[in-house]
From TrEMBL, chain A:
Tagged with keyword Cell cycle: no
Transmembrane helix as UniProt keyword: no
Alphabetized Pfam families for the sequence: CO_deh_flav_C, FAD_binding_5
SUPFAM superfamilies in UniProt: CO dehydrogenase flavoprotein C-terminal domain-like, FAD-binding/transporter-associated domain-like
Gene3D superfamilies associated with the record: 3.30.465.10, CO dehydrogenase flavoprotein, C-terminal domain, Uridine Diphospho-n-acetylenolpyruvylglucosamine Reductase, domain 2
Keywords assigned: FAD, Flavoprotein, Oxidoreductase
Protein name: Oxidoreductase
InterPro entries linked to this entry: CO_DH_flav_C, CO_DH_flav_C_dom_sf, Diverse_Substr_Oxidored, FAD-bd_PCMH, FAD-bd_PCMH-like_sf, FAD-bd_PCMH_sub1, FAD-bd_PCMH_sub2, Mopterin_DH_FAD-bd
Limits of the FAD-binding PCMH-type domain: 1-172
One annotated GO molecular function: FAD binding
Superkingdom of this protein's organism: Bacteria
TrEMBL record, chain B:
Organism: Mesorhizobium temperatum
Record-linked SUPFAM superfamilies: 2Fe-2S ferredoxin-like, CO dehydrogenase ISP C-domain like
Protein name: Ferredoxin
InterPro entries in the cross-refs: 2Fe-2S-bd, 2Fe-2S-bd_dom_sf, 2Fe-2S_ferredoxin-like_sf, 2Fe-2S_ferredoxin-type, 2Fe2S_fd_BS, Beta-grasp_dom_sf, Diverse_Oxidoreductases
Gene3D superfamilies on file: 3.10.20.30, [2Fe-2S]-binding domain
Ranges where the 2Fe-2S ferredoxin-type domain occurs: 4-80
GO molecular function annotations of the record: 2 iron, 2 sulfur cluster binding; metal ion binding; oxidoreductase activity
Keyword Nucleus on entry: no
Record carries keyword Ligase: no
Amino acid sequence: MRYIRPLSMEDAVGQLAGSSGTAAILAGGSDLLVRMKGGFIEPDLILDIKAIDGLSEIRETAEGFNIGAAVSCALMGESAALKGEWPGIVEAAKLIGSKQVQGRCTIVGNLCNASPAADSVPALVAAGARALIAGPGGKRTVPVEAVPTAPGKTSLAKGEIIEAILLDKRPPRSGDAYLRFIPRTEMDIAVVSAGVNLTLDEQGVVKSARVALGAVAPTVLLVEEAAEALIGRKLDEAALERLAKVCSGACRPIDDKRGTVEFRRKVAGVLARRAATTAYARAGGK
Amino acid sequence: MAGVAVSTTINGDNVEYLCQPDETLLDVLRDRLGLTGAKEGCGTGDCGACSIILDDRLVCSCLVLGAEAEGRRIETVEGMAHGDTLHPLQQKFLEHAALQCGICTPGFLIAAKDLLAKNPDPTEEEIRFGLAGNLCRCTGYDKIVRAVQDAANVMKGA
């Protein structure tokens, strides 16, 4: 086993592409070290990306936000600018783990761990966030929902590293929200979750919407029909009813000790409805 | 496996050590440096007994590699007292009997120190939330919360 801490993305990609055996990328380590400890993975190479220039920063650019892959969720919570524009993403990121874990965990790690119950992912999918990927062939950008392909699996090719999460600049009258259900009040894994992102016109009519559900399918679901239930309407009772019904219907959940299929379906509709209501209010809708 | 050479700062002292690439900072502190304040409860970031402060962030040292500490600043429970003078949190934990078996105590002390550094006047709710990453199976938490409140009052007056 080797541990390396490259200083540039080029070096990191080169080392990763040229490695033989199992390689693991280390940012916060809150998933990786637990998997190593449990004997689920024994990497030949641990590539720590935290010393790479710019990866530990949240940058506000002309296009929006660039959240480096090594930015901890705690740091996201301290960014007033990010919280102001994307409160739903920040509240999702802040739900991951304890304060100790918050100081280390990252949204890119959350995405690449590819758990269907990852808290930050539905919020990112709803936001239309993109992942900036560096690889041996150069850089590419994909929607975040294209990264996880199944529980624990991603679409990243050998040598590829997610460098940052990109968020677009917000049009006026936009709001997002994330909610999850857990059987306790804090620090648990989502049984069901929902992220909603809305933009309204001047009359408070929903102009664009994205609705994502977590923990109810092998990967986070982007439910386009749910967005259609909201677009072109104010958030009236009929629209909310339709949203809840569509979301419940879109679920393909498992039955386990944390929730039955029936329960997860029902709660997905309830959470989507509540998240939409919060997102609507945040967008200035009345 | 070749060792990784690390140069870091622990409680204000420059420290150098060699560790294995997969060795946690908790194991380095305890087994290589003799700093046995941080405890291993779960080893998976759930219990907070191994809490330390790394570059002003509260973290579980079981979820940090020893190799990652290069060039960084570590604070452990061993750095809280000044000689024979206990830190106000330590003093108040004693006065309030905020510990029984004591395994979780170093983690609670460090987490409470981090909490008060960022929020010198926390409400009870903020204390409970702030210490939610630390588990105690003896006290029922109430005495710990009282001790932290009392220490906050003392530290504000100082």
